[in-house]
Specification:
Rossmann fold, 11 helices, 10 strands
């Protein structure tokens, strides 16, 4: 049984079944399960459950160490292959297109993205995410070359990421994997991402790194535009590498589950 956290309470819903049936369970623990203020007070429960899980899947070594320190077994899975249903090319207006993947969470420097867009009049920014989660005051500061797509169905979302010249996805929180970045790489699209060690390690090619400031984002977009073909080839090569890595990681997880079924 695979169960995702947060919320950590979700694991409690499968625990009785797994104990009664002697079935192993695997926790897929996202960064927020450890670092989001909402879940800080529940780390004792996270550790207790990790000790009973066959393994806890995390995205990086820092989080893996937190699991091990609590007595649990950790498996690092930086990302998994992503596929989207076929769809027509996303309608763009002919300008250099940046797909800005957002959820408007507290760790996303949305205002800096808008400030950068204002400096890049020849670039169109397609900002995903449900705008109900974005402050109206911040939304009002978006310049004319920012287009809010709203929350897109999977086919349209995949089409946007594949059709755009680059995908921009940022976080101010360390130890955070950016789903939008690996979704882009699996579609062969280069990325602009925040300059954190975990992200440099996960995306050593096909990426331009920023410090989340307006100036850095402007520089990165210009660098991407000047070297897009080269960076796209790097993204395709990285995709091939990630697929090979996932095959090995998947085998290791399944082997771990088998050993827990027959201790």
């Amino acid at each position: 049984v695979f169960v995702m956290t947060p919320p950590v309470f979700a694991v409690l819903s499968v625990l009785p079944y797994c104990l009664l049936r002697r079935v192993p369970f695997v926790m897929d623990a996202h960064t927020a399960a450890f670092l989001h203020p909402r879940w800080k007070h529940w780390q004792w429960l996270q550790r207790w459950l990790s000790r009973r899980a066959a393994t806890t899947i995390v995205t990086n070594e820092h989080l893996a160490n937190l699991v091990r320190q609590g007595g649990g077994h950790a498996t690092i899975v930086r990302d998994v292959p992503v596929e989207y249903p076929p769809a027509p090319p996303f309608p763009l207006n002919g300008k250099f297109a940046i797909a800005a993947v957002c959820s408007f969470n507290y760790d996303e420097p949305v205002e800096e993205i808008f400030k950068a867009a204002e400096k890049l009049e020849n670039v169109e920014f397609y900002v995903t995410g449900n705008t109900r989660d974005l402050s109206p005051e911040i939304a009002a500061r978006a310049p004319g070359n920012v287009r809010f797509t709203g929350f897109l169905p999977d086919p349209d979302y995949g089409s946007l990421l594949k059709t755009a010249q680059a995908v921009l996805t940022l976080t101010t929180r360390d130890h955070t994997m950016l789903r939008g970045a690996y979704e882009a790489i699996y579609l062969g699209t280069p990325v602009i991402i925040s300059d954190w060690p975990i992200l440099r390690e996960a995306f050593p090619r096909g990426a331009v790194y920023v410090d989340n400031t307006m100036e850095s984002i402007v520089r990165a977009v210009r660098e991407m535009a000047a070297n897009q073909a080269k960076l796209q080839q790097q993204a395709l090569a990285l995709r091939k590498q990630k697929l090979a890595e996932w095959k090995k990681t998947k085998a290791a997880i399944l082997q771990r589950i088998r050993t827990q079924q027959n201790p």
